[in-house]
Amino acid sequence: MLKVFSYPSEEAETFIQKLLKRGSEVDPEIEKQVVKILSEVKSRGDDAIIEYTKKFDFPGATTKNLIVTRSEFEEAYRQIDDKFLEILRYAIKNIETFHKKQLQQSWFIANEDGTFVGQMIKPVTSVGLYVPGGTGGNTPLISTLLMTAIPAKIAGVSNIALASPPRSNGTIHPGLLVASQEIGVDCVYKMGSAWAIAAMAYGTELVKPVDVIAGPGNVYVTTAKKIVSGIVGIDVLAGPSEILIIADDTANPEYIAADLLSQAEHDSMASSILISTDSRLINTVINATKEQMEKLPRVDTVTASLENYGACFLVENLDRAMELANRIAPEHMEIHTKNPWSLIGKIKNAGAVFIGEYTPEPVGDYFAGPNHVLPTSGTARFASALGVDAFLKKISILHYPREALAKSQQKIASMARWEELEAHARSVLIRNKN
User: 12 with 54, same domain?
Assistant: First the structure.
């Protein structure tokens, strides 16, 4: 199922172009459906939210059970064992430690002529987080909540809301509720898909509008975020997951196979790529992949993923491997070579880099600290991992005393007149007529 290409070659180029286009186009029919959902929520508010929730998630949905209550949080804690809580708190600590380093400080420059300029850092007031419910709400992405809520909290956001689809019995998974309380989420809404994004963007009778929406989702969620992005800030437009592994003849094929499969099980659009200087390693990895995937519960998804977007590239040396890796700009890049640190300086485009054979991608997904909300579909060429910055605003501060303005006014007026903006020029010149 893993196709093998020599790079560079025409066959390799054809696959690379297919890979780079993956997930970049939205089905017009889906976009049409999402526009309708957004319009319904905007005009009908909570009634539309309840209608969609009844149809797709929880038949007994009403406005009375849209928001998680205090008693539901307490019940969630009773359902969670101590081991889960211990691990959860350890992961939270690691993620907090990493993201606190990202927090910027306001700064100012006071010049001798009395002019004063600077940048003031302020958090947005409110954030809406979206966490998919997984299979019927029973496999929620708890790690995604940690990766979105913790940076927002560190940024100083005063109101953090969470939206996640309810299970068929009207509850939210207890693990998700407990995690939300451990982090300090202020409100949890039982709503999912595009109507949840619309509610947080526009506001309804019960759902307060937010300034920024963060968190991944299916194509309906992603399309909704794209449409409302002019009204609210968003984090990223997440595409299908992807991993790219660079390996030489010293790499362990069993480890590589396991790591390729860890992404392939996400969905049929996920991409798993190996770039290696050793043809024997590639063959061994392919065999190991076949053996390991037979034991996976999501074998059908894995099979489709590898058949559609799985590949191994044979290259002449590691320089060529880095060239190809930077072209693909993967979400996750692993380096399994004799001296992985020697390649760090050659990395230009990647969402996150995992160095050495004992740093598999799931370490970053759940535990290490760096954020796992990463640019996909080649957008690592210009985008970064989600972080504290996504929830901060940079406000410029300026002050000119009269004497400083008088000294510069003719220069400023001249620049305004170059652009034929006479009122701009006069705005400056009028202040020193007296």
Answer: no
Task: Assess if residue 375 is contained within a domain.
Answer: no
Whether 38 and 123 map to the same domain: the answer is yes
CATH code, 17: 3.40.50.1980
93, part of any domain: yes
Taking alpha carbons only, the member of 169, 135, 142, 145 closest to residue 297 is: 135
pTM above 0.90, yes or no: yes
DSSP bridge partners of 108 = 118
Report how far residue 198's alpha carbon sits from residue 229's, in angstroms, rounded to the nearest whole number: 11
Secondary structure of residue 233 in the 3-state scheme = strand
- Residues 12 and 65 occupy one common structural domain: no
What is the distance between the alpha carbons of residues 156 and 153, in angstroms, rounded to a whole number?
5
What is the secondary structure of 141-171 as a DSSP string?
-HHHHHHHHHHHHHHT-SEEEEEEPPPTTSP
| 386 located within any domain | no
**Residues 204 and 244 occupy one common structural domain:** no
Contact 394, 121 (CB under 8 A): yes
Q: Which residue has the tokens 């992961």?
A: 91
Q: Which residues are catalytic?
A: 331-332
At residue 37's C-alpha, the angle toward residues 376 and 378, to 5°, is 10
Give tens-digit pLDDT for 51-64: 999 999 999 999 99
Residue where a domain terminates, one of 349, 368, 387:
368
Strand partners for 242? 271
Q: Are 422 and 393 in contact (CB under 8 A)?
A: no
Distances (CA, A) of 52 to 33, 133, 172, 190, 277: 12, 15, 17, 12, 52
For helices 422-429 and 402-418, angle between their N-to-C axes, nearest 10 degrees: 170
Cα–Cα distances (Å) from 345 to 236, 341, 403, in that order, read 26, 8, 49
| Total count of domains within the chain | 3
Beta strands in 63-142 (DSSP E): 107-110, 116-123, 126-130
Tens digit of each residue's pLDDT (9 = 90 or more) over 272-314: 999 999 999 999 999 999 999 999 999 999 999 999 999 999 9
Which range of residues forms the domain containing residue 197? 28-234
- For residue 237, the model assigns a pLDDT of 85
CB contact set of 58 (below 8 Å; sequence gap of 6+):
166, 167, 168, 169, 170, 190
CA dihedral sign of residues 15, 20, 23, 26: negative
Same domain, 177 and 110: yes
